[in-house]
Write a structure and sequence with these properties.
Elements: H1 29-33, E1 38-47, E2 53-65, E3 71-80, E4 84-85, E5 88-94, E6 99-102, E7 108-113, E8 116-122, E9 126-134, E10 138-147, E11 159-167, E12 181-189, E13 192-200
Length: 201
């Protein structure tokens, strides 16, 4: 099987959610969950259509990058032992405590509301689902991807599952810096291989 360099899902800015009046004016989704990256582990499995299964494990991290006044990118980074990098990048809008792109009535949506992660991405080539939690000092996310067509890295019928388990220590002196350096890497996506910037945490 070809070595996986990088996997990115990039979703357009869509949708809306309610504001939470209980959050202080100075706090929003980016300031609450940005800054110091979450670091930990990622575990999962790669199941081929024929039944062969490969258990996966490695280092995982979650970070917010490319912050603007009302939009930000969330990256789920994994470095899988003996396999390579499988990274997911999702861009969306945010308000007080919520992050969102698309809506639940469409084939593409991803949201984080009340610290709960929920999402779905359906295309001709793959189906992906997301669920988990993102709290101030802990982040967990499960992604399941089913490849309906053969890609550069995955045969048709492959099921890929990744489980991120990360945490961080947040202090009052955290200045909000990303804690990551940007690097240019090959990116595998729905449209093939490209080059793009991702954080190196």
């Amino acid at each position: 099987m070809k070595k996986i360099m990088l996997f990115m899902v990039s979703i357009l800015l869509l949708g809306c959610t309610k504001e939470d009046d209980q959050v202080r004016e100075s706090e929003d989704f980016s300031s609450l969950y940005g800054g110091i990256p979450y670091k930990g582990t990622v575990r999962g499995s790669l199941l081929l259509e024929g039944g062969n299964k490969l258990d996966l494990s490695g280092a995982g991290s979650i970070a917010l990058i490319e912050d603007t006044r009302d939009s930000v990118s969330i990256v789920f980074l994994s470095d899988i032992e003996d396999l390579g990098e499988i990274n997911i990048k999702i861009r969306g809008k945010y308000d007080r405590k919520s992050f969102y792109t698309g809506n639940e009535n469409s084939d593409i949506y991803f949201k984080i509301t009340d610290q709960t992660i929920n999402g779905e991405f359906i295309s001709e080539t793959q189906e992906m689902t997301f669920d988990g939690r993102l709290e101030r000092e802990q982040g967990q996310m499960k992604m399941l991807a089913v490849f309906k067509k053969e890609t550069e890295s995955f045969p048709k019928g492959t099921r890929l599952e990744l489980n991120f388990n990360t945490s961080r220590d947040v202090t009052e002196n955290d200045s909000g810096g990303s804690g990551c350096q940007m690097r240019m890497v090959p990116i595998w996506g729905p449209n093939g291989m490209t080059m793009g910037m991702v954080p190196d945490c």
